[in-house]
Amino acid sequence: MHTQILANIPSPPQGVWQLGPIPIRAYALCIIVGIIVGLRMTLRRYTARGGNPDTVWDAAIVVIPAGIVGGRLYHVITDNQKYFCDNCNPVDALKITNGGLGIWGAVALGALALWVLFKVKKVPLGPFADAVAPGLVLAQAIGRLGNWFNQELYGRPTDVPWALDIYYRVNEKGAYAPVSGHSTGEVMTSVHPTFLYEMVWNVLVCLFLLWAHKAWKLGHGRVFALYVMGYTLGRFFIEGMRSDEATHIFGVRVNIIVSLVIFIIAAIVFFLLDRHRQGSESPEEVDPKYWAENRDSRQRGDEHTVSEGQQRDSSTT
């Protein structure tokens, strides 16, 4: 029989609330809050470097849906046994609110969508990627709270003081429903809160990127490469602590292999970019067209101000 430890972290009693006929899902709310926080940080960082704020909104319109679709595709592909088995319902693969977004797919398809957008707009992608990196990893940290509400992405059973208690949840019919059900108060097991480990790690990566960008004068996409390195480094170790179902290759969880491969690629890209270009971009390099337009408007504004001053001077003589 399991003995509950008072110091353990409790799981929320439920992850879905009904507002009349409308289900309010904590997982979706966490993702939305993460997107808002990441977007605000990106907007502030990109415009501070001389970028056009409209570019950030254009990117959001393209990246958010691409990231969600890419993240879901990666999850469904790597965890296909959950949706395509004898007792599975393939329609569940479309139920994104039940949880299941693979960050690799989200970043990959989102980055591809961004590349196409910036090619069309003829704006350098590197400065924007550097601006978005800290906000992106912070958004991931906030989104991980959704896994807490859904009682997912946890690790192996443990008796550490910060262990996470997983509750037995049932729906209105009394059937077991780990995501949408209500807790009965019964603790099924106590596990490593790997979602929390990743959340804390992501916040630390965010702070490190903000520091490194200024201290090392990074630019031309190197901050984004550093983000990929930082995230995959933490994910490599945290993934090994998880015990949920996952696709394995040669007996190793697929996300561990993906983390290692992407870390190596990102490290190579980081050092190659450093060889070709030193320092961060000037405002003229971030968005040449927007900078030129702003420079002309500022000059016109200065000339207008001078002209007004001269008129006031002449009227007082």
Automatic annotation (TrEMBL):
One of its GO terms (biological process) is lipoprotein biosynthetic process. Pathway: Protein modification; lipoprotein biosynthesis (diacylglyceryl transfer). Keywords: Cell membrane, Membrane, Transferase, Transmembrane, Transmembrane helix. Residues 307-317 have a biased composition (Polar residues). It holds the Pfam family LGT. The chain crosses the membrane at residues 24-43, 101-118, 195-213, 219-238, 250-273. InterPro entries: Lgt. Its EC number is 2.5.1.145. It is found in: Cell membrane. PROSITE patterns: LGT. The keyword Protease does not apply. It is a multi-pass membrane protein. A 1,2-diacyl-sn-glycero-3-phospho-(1'-sn-glycerol) binds at R144. GO terms for molecular function: phosphatidylglycerol-prolipoprotein diacylglyceryl transferase activity. One of its GO terms (cellular component) is plasma membrane. It comes from the Bacteria. Residues 286-306 have a biased composition (Basic and acidic residues). Residues 279-317 are annotated as: Disordered. The keyword Thylakoid does not apply. Coiled coil: none annotated. It is an enzyme of class 2 (transferase). Belongs to the Lgt family. Catalyzes the transfer of the diacylglyceryl group from phosphatidylglycerol to the sulfhydryl group of the N-terminal cysteine of a prolipoprotein, the first step in the formation of mature lipoproteins. This is Phosphatidylglycerol--prolipoprotein diacylglyceryl transferase. It comes from Corynebacterium curieae.
